[in-house]
Design a protein that fits this description.
This protein is an alpha/beta fold. Helix content is about 30%, strand content about 20%. The longest helix is centred in the first third of the chain and has 18 residues.
Length: about 375
Amino acid sequence: MSRYPYTVVLIVPTGIGAAIGGYAGDALPVAKAIAQVADRLITHPNVLNGAQLYWSLPNALYVEGYGLDRFACGEWGLRPVYQNRIGLLLDRAIEPDLRLRHLQAADAARATLGLNLTEYVITDAPLGIELQTAPSGATWGSLRNPDSLLRAAEKLITQAGATAIAVVARFPDDPDSLALQNYRYAQGVDPLAGAEAIISHLIVRTFHIPCAHAPALSPLPLDAHLSPRAAAEELGYTFLPCVLVGLSQAPQFVTPSPVTDHQAIAEPEFSLAQSNPGDIGSNQVNAVIVPASACGGSAILSLGNCQAQIIAVEENSTQMQAPPEKFGIRALRVHSYLEALGVLVAHRAGIVPQALKSIVDPIRLLNRD
């Protein structure tokens, strides 16, 4: 490894129907490939979660979306850890049999993978998940009882010593919906993704610790025409294993101010000068990879203003119409993730991609007014 670790941020926003990364862990091959090029890969659960499938990448940092936004804008830093104590938070709306399936998944993660889980808690009221779809086609959602979620998380942190939170909320079953059918055939937007993001954002925003979510759903009937991109979610009764694996070594957030009364507060900028050796700030990011039509999110808007090389992948189409040029982001457009990998190799070597083409334009005179 060089003196300055080559750091790549991989972003595939959730709930916008990304052709790659909009389904069940189907961006994980991209992350695995990038991890072979970069010293450090920073990405988020939507990229690495694949229900019961997962792949531990030693140099990948599993960062929840709200925390990634705060990191990108320079307010928070990331502190790699060897192990987190994961608190399991279950929605009271989960039926007893389905709850037992998730508890057995948690026990399997402890016995088979050696993960460190605390005692679990059940919310004092059903969370009341409601799903919505925006006119753009992106999905979102709401909670009827967010205070119940926060009380349960606080209990895990203060009484069980949890340093990361895995949430399982009961989501509405709608097996006959057209949206779900389209998703299973890799032709639509994940109907759950937007609401999942709301849950994890709320906990990270309030408590400043890693969090990820796995929905609790009744098993779907077999479908012989299921897309391979959605198949990971059809393997069993729970999506929890990948979340537990991701959270087990998710970096802690380094914030300038402590949490007060469990309310989100305005954050000054994070400074590596006041942090521990090994902490990571956004000024250490060398490259960012994002779908070319989804450059309107908070993280990419922040990172687009730094010195990092922004790589916009055109092949990964989404429901969004937010190209980098619309926001004044200077991005290098590429067709595919395969091409993006080549750009990373050249960038890390200090070679401009144009030098690898058969025709190199002559240097031009700078005309000043």
